[in-house]
Amino acid sequence: MTEQDLSKEQRILRVMRKVLSNIVKDATPQPGMLHPLSEGTIQDIRECFGLIAAREAELAGEAGLARNERPFYSDEPQQAKVVPLKTSGLNKGKKKED
Question: Which of 16, 29, 30, 96 is the residue whose CA sits 20 to 30 A from 69?
């Protein structure tokens, strides 16, 4: 789905998710240092991500899109295997009964 195919609300949600994740990345301290955000603010950010994900799921459901689809490489082995069935030799030993 391209950016032009998305509704205005979907584009807003995508940008909000991106901005929030960039804020989290920028505010994350090095190991051993104190976190600059309070525990309440961290919880609020988690709730925002949850609300964004829930609304995106609702919009995808309304549009008939599956949320479990993931991109794959064309040379990546697929889960489903095609099993060829030969039906030409199955009826050799049987006689047609009228």
Answer: 16
